[in-house]
Amino acid sequence: MFGLRTILVPFNNTQPNSAAIDAAKRIAEAEGAYIEGAYSRQVLPIIAGEGITLPGDYLAAFEEEGRQQAALAREAFETLIGERGIPLNSLESEGLRAGWTE
Predict the structure, then answer these.
(1) What is the pTM of this model?
(2) Own/partner pairs, 16-25, CB within 8 angstroms, 24+ separation
């Protein structure tokens, strides 16, 4: 029988926190599972009437903000797993390990 293989720890416009990582680590150690930190960017809600367009600089600023939030979330995730002795490694590896995806 197969056990738990992957623990998904999702983030959406929030920073990874120690409680989520600690819980994932406890489960991963017990099951030999892989921890996947996953960041999902917020989609820009574009609400405009017919013939109305949003300025390009507004869209570019929103996209840049999303990139910055993703980078900060990844940095926080990697710091938290590092503090807990969880190595970054691939899903195909064995033992306690973690990875990141966006």
Answers:
(1) 0.80
(2) 16/73, 16/76, 16/77, 16/80, 17/80, 18/80, 21/77, 21/80, 21/81, 21/84, 21/86, 22/84, 25/84, 25/86, 25/96
